[in-house]
Amino acid sequence: MTASTIDLLQGTLDVLVLKALSWGPRHGHAVARIIRDSTAGTLLVLDGSLYAALHRLEERELVAGHWGLSDKGKRAKFYALTPTGRKQLRTEAAVWERYAASVSRLLAATAEPARA
Amino acid sequence: MAPPAWRRYLRFWGTNLDADLDDEFRFHFDTDVDDLMARGMSPQQARAEALRRFGDVDQFRRSCQSADLRRAGRERRTERYSMLAQDLRYALRSLRRQPAFTAIAVLTLALGIGANTAIFSVVNGVLLNPLPYRAPDRLMMLWEAMPDGSKVYVSYPNYLDWKTKQRSFEDIAVYDAFHAFNLTGQETAERVAGALASGNLFQLLGIEPAAGRLLAPSDDTPAAPRVAVLSQGYFQSRFGGDRAALGKSLVLDGESYAIVGVLPPKAGTLTRDVYVPLAPLVQGEKYARESHPGLIGLGRLKPAVSLEQARGDMARVSAELAREYPAQNAGIGAGGDFLMERTVGRIKPTLRILSIAVGLVLLIACVNVANLVLSRSTARQREFAVRTALGAGQGRLVRQLLTESLVLALAGGVAGAGLAWAGVKYLVSLNPESVPRLIEVRVDGTVLLFALGISVLTGLLFGLAPALHSARSEPVTALKEAGRSGGGGAARRRTRAALTVAEVALAVALLSGAGLLVRSFDKLTSVNPGFEPAHLLAAMLLLPESRYGTAEQQRVAFDQVLERVRAIPGVETATIGTDLPITTNWQSGVTFEGLPPFPPGQGPLLNTSVVDPTYFDALRIPLLSGRALAPSDGAGQPKVALISEAIAKKYFPAASPLGRRFVIGSSTDSTAVWITIVGVVRDTRTDGLTEEPRGTFYMPRTQEAMERGWLVVRSPMDPGQLTTAVRRALAEVDRDIPLALARTMENALDELVEAPKFTMLMLTIFAVVALLLASVGIYGVIAHNVAQRRAEIGVRMALGAARSEVVGLVLRQAMAMALAGVAIGVVLALWGGKSLSSLLYGVGPRDPVVLIGVGVFLMLVSLIAAIAPAVRAARIDPALTMRGDAG
Question: In this structure, how many other beta carbons lie within 10 angstroms of the beta carbon of residue B813?
Fold first, then answer.
């Protein structure tokens, strides 16, 4: 692993995919672009694992797939958040934020915290 | 590379998951490559970069595919459930809309399924469940046999020899399951159903105690301390299931026995209350080699030894014993059969008949409900037509109708299981002696599974034909026909008529069977028993051996008892004898003076009975010739006896038997005493109501020992009410003498016919149910036809047909169906009657009285069932029906 990229755990990837779909239905390529662009290459995400995540989420009924036409008029499979998926995203995002806050609080600390 | 265009059309026939996945990946690559080329890469570079970004394509395809497969599977299941739920909701709604139809159908099915479930639970408990022993299929019951093949109980010394000589069994045991203990040491003496068992009996059966221990071989020696094992039932009823009973003792026949253990609740053929070791009680004439007291043999076959081999081995042992002890064992053979077969074999024909009967009842119920569903579906044709026109597939309609049928059938099944549960409970509480192992019968998981199975089968049976019928109909014709109330379709009407004919035929067959059994039972109960059973009370008296050891003591005791009982107000007379006129207790070989002696082992066994001289007057058994027994035939006088007519006819066909002499056993025995025949009395049915009596010797109790006997009391009042007074009189003599088995003689006679009565009653119940269902069926079909043909009848009446003609028309139609049904039913009855022959007495399986009677009866019932619809048809107002759709 290089210093600038982070391997993702499966659950984390799922949250990112759910988040990418929170702005509306997207096809797989668009989801990949959103994740790559927003993380500016810090995260190493193979496009294939993205599809695996999408199909897994579809199986769990967190996202729903349907066939439509892309902006270039090609047939593409679009994914949309289901109500359960939206709820799941909210829960996981909250957990992730608490986790990140705790980690960064400790890492940013300059002195040993007082005992409670 | 674009996907072939034709593939997307495949989607009309369902989704193609793999193709979709390929399309999805291809779209991704194409877009990615386009993007990268737009950023200035060459096509080769772009393609390489897109592949790098994607990762291992095969790996990700596999993981996507497996997720897709799981999702598709779940979706299919959900779809199926939701369709089923929809069908169910729809079925429930449509059944609720017609509560009368639903109630009748469910009730009909409940009767059919309930009857089948009840009989199956008996079959299951009695025939199918193995006996509760270790490897019960290796257990055999053993007996000895007379030269004519008749079975006799096992002689104790022979049993001891069998044990060492036989080679087929791991072990053999004997037990006397007919012993009656006199239980004393308490308020009043009591009779206890006991068994005397060889010490290895329980080990041989492989049965474990519920508490304490069972008998062991070490208990079975003459000097061993006396111990007793209780049945679970006796343990519960006498000691309330309290384990403190272990170690307590019971005084049985004047001896104290320590209670050492309790049998488990499921003890199979072990139905006695108290089991004690046999060896300490082995003494006297009863256990001599030539005696065959009530000992039943049991053997456990060695592995790989067959029934035939074991029988052969027993024959070899018997032949050996006959050579060793020619005086006692000449001509005595041995036999055996599987214990299960001996236990339940005799009930098999009855259960087979009853199973067939309930099967027929269920068929009739099915036909009835199929008819109901058919006539209902006629009324629902418009609904089906509309649904078909709106695009419901035929498969969906059939499934919908089948769902309705199955819901009906399952409701019927639940109600039927309830009926069966109540019926079985009632049956077990009756506990007819004629059904072995009935105590083990219950509605258990197997039975419920059976009920579920036949419910589903029933639902398919009565639901399939109407469902296919309805679904097949053309929507356009149906819509047109349903517009008029005259429709319904000739095919459907024919189907219903055929079903009704079948129903009548089955009812005729069943009623004929019941009729045969009723007539047979009537013949059986009108057999003259040879005495007058009315106004008699009978009870067993047992003198405790410890205090009444000598013949003189016994005689005095019985004298006192008779004197006190005769003094009871309302008692006309009282007498005593070793046997009731309907039972025998002891048979002996005899030698007649002046007739050549029978070769050893070849002579007849004749009943020997010891009686009070008043026996014949009290029972009203007429003296045919000679003189009666008299008090003057005292102990010191020459021995005398009466014989019954059968002996007189068989052995003295030409000359008078009076004054002739005989000895019990052989005249060469040192103890032989000549007895003079002084009179001949009429035979009574000592060997069963249907058997010709073998003949009885009656010896006066003044000249013979008698330690037990049947007290018989004649009273002009209801004899059953005398029991308490008799018991009191008995206690005045000695409170340690129990009064056992007290019942009126008429009840005792009833017990003899209990088995045929049970079969007859059960079959009659099922036949009546069948008759009810069939008459409801006829009524339903005729009423429906009248309703369907209102318009036609209206036209006829408008054209001048008289009301009587209309009535005739309807009745003729009903009679035609009934006649066809009766004809087929009689053929069925003729064909099936022979399966009943083993259960019939005094009536042939093709008795014309029964067949004609049942046929005429069913024609009458059909006529009655058709009268109401016929009258309704005659009241049709032609003006109303002519106007159009008559409401």
Answer: 19
Q: Return contacts of B744-748, CB within 8 angstroms, 24+ apart.
A: B744/B536, B744/B537, B744/B538, B744/B719, B744/B720, B745/B533, B745/B534, B745/B536, B745/B537, B745/B538, B745/B580, B745/B712, B745/B719, B746/B533, B746/B534, B746/B536, B747/B720, B748/B533, B748/B538, B748/B580, B748/B582
Q: Name which of B684, B352, B401 is nearest B529 in CA terms.
A: B684
Tokens of B848: 């014309």
* Inter-chain touch B59–A77, beta carbons under 8 Å: no
User: pLDDT tens digits, residue range B147-183?
Assistant: 777 788 999 999 999 999 999 999 999 999 888 888 8
Structure tokens, B686: 């000592």
Distance CA B140, CA B342 (A): 9
As a residue count, chain B comes to 887
CB atoms B60 and A74 under 8 Å = no
Query: In this structure, are residues B92 and B407 in contact, taking their beta carbons and an 8 Å threshold?
Result: yes
CA distances B116 to B105, B308, B332, B429, B500, Å, are 17, 36, 45, 19, 22
Q: B716 in helix, strand or coil? A: coil
Ramachandran category for residue B247: left, alpha or beta (phi over 0 → left; psi -120 to 50 → alpha): left
How many angstroms separate the CA atoms of B152 and B845, rounded?
32
Q: What are phi and psi of B886, to 5 degrees?
A: -70, 130
Distance CA B415, CA B693 (A): 49
Closest CA to B579 of B634, B530, B523: B530
Backbone φ and ψ for A79, nearest 5 degrees, come out as -115, 140
Q: Is the dihedral of CA B142, B147, B151, B157 positive or negative?
A: negative
Angstrom distance (rounded) from CA B550 to CA B732: 21
Mind listing the pLDDT tens digit for each residue in B771-826? Answer: 988 888 888 888 888 887 888 888 888 888 888 888 998 899 889 999 999 999 99
**Residue B3's closest chain A neighbor by CA?**
A75
Question: Dihedral sign, CA of B866, B871, B874, B879?
Answer: negative
Closest residue in A to B21 (Cα) is A77
For residue A24, give the 3-state DSSP assignment.
coil
**A-B Cβ pairs (cutoff 8 Å, strict):** 68
Contact, B374 vs B464, CB < 8 A? no
DSSP H stretches of helix in B325-393: 326-329, 339-344, 348-379, 381-389
Two tokens at B211? Answer: 């508490």
Cross-chain CB nearest to B64 (options A46, A47, A55): A55
**Strand B274-277 to strand B190-197: parallel, antiparallel, or no bridges (unpaired)?**
parallel
* Residue among A26, A16, A30 nearest A80 (CA): A26
d(CA B379, CA B647): 76
What pLDDT digit, counting tens, does each position of B65-112 carry?
Answer: 999 999 889 888 988 888 888 888 988 888 888 888 899 899 999 999
Identify each DSSP E strand in A3-110 by its residue range.
26-27, 63-69, 75-81
Q: Is the pLDDT of residue B483 over 50?
A: no
DSSP for B455-519 reads HHHHHHHHHHHHHHHHHHS-HHHHHHHHHSTT-S-HHHHHHHHHHHHHHHHHHHHHHHHHHHHHH
Report the chain A residue with the minimal C-alpha distance to residue B58: A48
Report ipTM for this prediction: 0.86
Which residues of chain B neighbour A46 with C-beta distances below 8 Å? 53-55, 60
Cβ B28–A32 below 8 Å, yes or no?
yes
CB atoms within 10 A of CB B11: 12
Written as one letter, the residue type at B470 is S
Measured N-to-C along each axis, helices B754-788 and B490-525 cross at an angle, to the nearest 10 degrees, of 160
Average pLDDT over residues B532-560: 88
Residue B850: what are its φ and ψ, rounded to 5°?
-65, -50
Identity of the residue in A48, A55, A76 whose CB atom sits nearest the CB atom of B57:
A48
